[in-house]
Amino acid sequence: MPTDIDHVLTTSLPQPGLPMASLNGKPYAWGSWGSPVAKAEYGGDKTMSISRIDISETLNYEITDWLTANANIGYNTYSKTLDEVKNSIQYYNITGEKVVLTDPTQAKSYYRQMNERADNYTLTGYLNGHKDFGKHGTSLTAGVQYEFKDFKRFGATAENILEGIEIINGTGDIKLYDTSRYQNSILSYFFRANYDFDSRYLLEVNGRYDGSSKFLAENRWAFFWGVSAGWRINEEKFLKDVSWINNLKLRASYAEVGNQSGIGNYDGVQLYNLHSNSGAYIGSGLISYLATNGTFASKTRSWERIKNYNIAVDFGFNIAKGHNINGTVEYFQKRNDNMLVSVTLPGTLGDSAPSANVGKFKDWGWEGQVTYNGKTGDVEYHVGGTLTFARNELTEYQGTAVKSPGYHSNYVGYGLSSLFGYRYAGKIQNEEQRQAYLALYYNNNGIGMSNNLRVGDNMYCDENGDGKLDENDLIYLGSSNPEISYSFNLGASWKGIDFSVVFQGAANRFIYRGNSTNWVVPYRGLYMNNLASSIGNVWSEDNPDAYYAPYTNDSNINQYNYQASSLTAQDGRYLRLKTLSIGYTFPKKWLQATKVIENLRVYFNGTDLWETTKISDGWDPESRIATSGTALYPFTRNFTFGMNVTF
């Protein structure tokens, strides 16, 4: 793979029709811009070699007819070697007769090599007992689990290389690159006890005592537990003879689980980085030096304790022979009362503050699922759907939350990925209106308003009426997390032909792509290619309600016009045909004649074949909210034709 493949995948061409090479086929440059094709072709290659071994052995021993001992021993390891070459490239003018750019220079060409290895060990042992006493059923599982990971990575970069030498080389500076070493482990003691009476009343209690090396000794261990209960109502005598009910179950649960994601391996210890050959110039070269890793050590961090509450009803009804309905309705709630969040310390301390258990968060909602199965003659079919409504909220935060337009996850009373911006007040329609708007707010604004605003540029509301436009006028615009998610599916089969389709969608979701990217702001960069979504939708006297302001490459005006607001926050709802599958399974009597093929099915699968959405910028409505690089991608269609054969 080319080392500079990202220049091909993420580069916007400075102008339409720009040549990729000179007239005689040499690398072409326009000013300081070098052709991405030349970077991929001549800039060097990146190769990766990976080897992996996975071993897992399970041992079972029956002690009595009701008690067994079980053990699992696992080991996996992988080794990775990455070689990356960055060659110097000379770029020419359009005729290919004159070198106009060298990037990188020969002195900055490099060969980079990185070697990585990880060894993972797991050991699990437990006893499992099961005993029935008449209508009473009991079972108990108790055991221990240990996981250990050992990771090593070493890299080096040599500059001023000889091209074509397939081993690390160079006569320039040699520096360490991406060097890392760590170990972590977790030890858990666990149990689970189950009881049921007459297959009607179900009870489970479980617990685990976890210790993680990521925490200091005084914060390392924590106990987590849970309990769940179920009532199979249809097994009661008053419903046992009701033939049209095949399942009716009420269940509820409460569980506490631990979370250590986001915790570094040595956050309780002050770490230092070695900067090789990058310090002051002393004697004949640059010195190496040590510096902190930029973050203070934490002495108080501990496990996040996440509390989960659930209550649900499972149901199943027989409508007629061969026809039934099954489904679930569930209410859920999740609470985290010691959430790890970022905090702020005085800047005079020099390093960043570590995250701390000073946040409280809750998530709650409803979820439902239903499926109808039917059969008419030789045709079997099903229709079903799911619907989820979910909200979340940060209920307490002891860090520092600074108001600004855009997405935030640290405002108390709001959910994660909440979007804030200004209320859009329309476009400036004439010079008189422009002068009045500037007179009111230019000297009292903190939203990037410049004195060279044009007719056709945006206006924003003074939400709190204090005569200023600043962060105090920000309003909540929504969240990128959908409050409503849904899907529905249907399928059928008839004499070997099968068909299935799934539609999927979301609602109560708002997307803001940002204002610092060439992908969503027309002509933000001089001579930049742009999406066609703005064509016919730019302000003019004849189009006063257009979405886009008049084209400009003035960064200050673009920053102002396309900042987060009720205009630029797009309605992120969508519905799409997620999957479509059509297949045919050949009758076995046809295949018997071959005496070789046991089963044969041919099929077609399609993904994302159709969608409807309020998103207007041309990007996939499911894509992330990030606004640069390959994080955004347009609609795609995927088609697969295949065959499954069993011999």
Q: Overview of this structure, please?
A:
- The protein has 647 residues and is mainly beta.
- The chain has helices at residues 5-9, 36-42, 237-240, 431-441, 555-561, 588-592, and strands at residues 29-30, 33-34, 46-64, 67-86, 90-92, 99-102, 110-133, 136-159, 174-176, 180-197, 201-212, 221-232, 245-259, 272-275, 281-282, 285-286, 289-292, 304-320, 323-341, 356-376, 379-397, 406-408, 418-421, 424-427, 458-460, 475-479, 484-494, 497-507, 510-511, 570-571, 574-585, 599-613, 638-646.
- It has an 18-stranded antiparallel β-sheet that branches. A three-stranded antiparallel β-sheet has the order 22-23-26, with no helix packed on it. A two-stranded antiparallel ribbon has the order 1-2.
- The chain is globular and about 90 Å long.
- The two termini are 37 Å apart.
- The mean pLDDT is 89.
Layout of SSEs?
Layout: H1 5-9, E1 29-30, E2 33-34, H2 36-42, E3 46-64, E4 67-86, E5 90-92, E6 99-102, E7 110-133, E8 136-159, E9 174-176, E10 180-197, E11 201-212, E12 221-232, H3 237-240, E13 245-259, E14 272-275, E15 281-282, E16 285-286, E17 289-292, E18 304-320, E19 323-341, E20 356-376, E21 379-397, E22 406-408, E23 418-421, E24 424-427, H4 431-441, E25 458-460, E26 475-479, E27 484-494, E28 497-507, E29 510-511, H5 555-561, E30 570-571, E31 574-585, H6 588-592, E32 599-613, E33 638-646
